[in-house]
Design brief:
With 377 residues, the chain is an alpha/beta fold. It contains twelve helices and 19 strands. Helix 1 links the parallel strand 1 and strand 2. It starts with a strand and ends in a 7-residue tail after the last helix. The structure holds flavin-adenine dinucleotide and uridine-5'-diphosphate.
Length: 377
């Protein structure tokens, strides 16, 4: 087999680049994926009741920039969806990120008011404060509050999710979900928050359905790398695997999803409920809440159990943001620059980066414009 571009991985990183090359040139592209489907971790499908299931956990599209939304709008219509999460704290379902509404749910009115006033005087309305920053404040009441939030919202959830406490991870991890000094119950404050009308998978089908793209599923790079004669390689798999783990294994966090069907119209009041302190799982997603007109009599949920990634046993989901891992990654990066400078490594696994979908799409578009478009065959 012969092609101009071999692209390993049919997730967002690989599919965006494949689509761009195929749409703007006559170059031949082969996209391979070891899974049986396209879409990477954004893959979704309808179950027998017609409910759209996100196979690898709930995927909410949000972006501060219009660019990734404009790009994907060529392949989908959208429904507006402002995601909200509830968390079970002290026996109550409270808004997460912790905000002033959460404050009044967990403390008596008078004390909540005092805390609200202190926070407003000190920081101002609308501020977003990472929990590890709020904990540095020396005011006695704010200290009490930050300890409360740390213990009840962050500590156990993070321990379950990562196998580490918040202080053992890069601060950017818990800063994703800051304390909000407002009454905004939304999980994200980004300007663009949407879901694809028919799900994510049709987006990938439309991106990859081009005469100069050949798609091979159930195909691992190591099994075909000698058989495919390519001019350029774009690799979105794990970089440590690509180099046969010569600098050691990059650790990942994996997840086990337990899907359950219930003969109920609704299982929980919200699409996602977090369980920071109870149970072995972190969150339950009820997929019905993600689409319009889901009038089925039954419902499907996914319970998320975090677990250690083990080669060949489960999937790599989350790169673990810790300095020691960045140092291992940097060795791979350096080695790649020196030894295979023409191979493009991009995506969550190849760059060992905790990317959201919008970010990986933006990076793929940028790499296409700045690098790939200029390549000669
Ligand atoms: P992937 O989607 O992982 O695609 C890589 C593909 O490469 C995979 O299909 C894999 O099978 C294939 N591959 C790997 N190695 C090989 C090989 N050797 N040979 C052949 N194929 C190979 N982002 C958001 O914006 N919003 C969310 O709400 C959100 N929720 C998430 C929830 C969970 C549980 C997870 C795990 C991620 C979530 N994300 C979310 C992040 C989102 O999934 C990623 O940003 C996105 O999938 C990254 O795309 P990618 O192409 O880099 O990687
Ligand atoms: N987090 C937490 N409690 C929560 C929600 C989030 O401790 O109720 C922390 C946890 O460390 C988590 C991180 O914030 O890994 C980022 O949360 P996010 O929802 O962005 O994680 P993802 O959707 O990527 O799994």
């Amino acid at each position: 087999m012969k092609c101009d571009f071999l692209i390993v991985g049919a997730g967002f990183a690989g599919s965006v680049i494949a689509e761009r090359i195929a749409s703007e040139s006559n170059f031949s592209v082969i996209v391979i994926d070891k899974r049986l489907h396209i879409g990477g971790n954004a893959f979704d499908f309808r179950d027998e009741n017609g409910i759209l299931i996100h196979k690898y956990g709930p995927h909410f599209f949000h972006s501060v920039s219009n660019k990734p939304v404009d790009y994907l709008s060529q392949f989908t219509e959208w429904i507006p969806y402002q995601h909200k999460t509830l968390g079970l704290v002290d026996g109550k379902l409270i808004p997460i990120p912790f905000n002033f509404n959460s404050l009044y749910e967990v403390f008596p009115f008078k004390y909540a008011k005092l805390l609200e006033n202190k926070l407003l005087t000190k920081f101002g309305f609308g501020l977003k404060i990472p929990i590890l920053k709020l904990q540095e404040d020396e005011d006695e009441d704010i200290k009490f509050l930050s300890d409360y939030i740390y213990k009840n919202v962050f500590l156990n959830y993070t321990q379950k999710q990562w196998g580490y406490s918040p202080n053992e991870l890069d601060p950017s991890v818990t800063a994703r979900i800051p304390v909000l000094l407002s009454r905004d119950n939304r999980y994200f404050q980004d300007k663009y928050q949407v879901l694809p009308k028919d799900g994510y998978t049709p987006i990938f089908e439309r991106m990859l359905n081009k005469k100069n793209i050949k798609l091979l599923l159930n195909t691992s790079f190591k099994d075909v790398k000698e058989e495919i004669d390519y001019s350029h390689l774009i690799y979105t798999g794990a970089i440590d695997e690509f180099f046969d783990f010569r600098f050691g294994h990059l650790p990942y966090r994996s997840l086990k999803f337990e899907f359950q069907k219930h003969n109920l119209k609704q299982f929980q009041p919200n699409s996602v409920v977090n369980y920071p302190n109870n149970n072995d799982f972190t969150r339950i997603t009820e997929f019905k809440h993600l689409m319009l007109n889901q009038e089925q009599k039954s419902t499907t949920i996914a319970i998320e159990f975090p677990e250690k990634y083990v080669d060949m046993i489960n999937e790599r989901f989350y790169p673990i943001p810790q300095l020691a891992n960045t140092e291992i990654y940097n060795q791979y990066f350096q080695f790649a620059q020196e030894n295979v400078p023409s191979t493009i490594f991009i995506g969550r696994l190849a760059e060992y980066k905790y990317y959201n979908m919008n970010e990986v799409i933006s990076v793929a578009l940028m790499i296409y414009e700045n690098k790939i478009k200029k390549l000669k065959i």
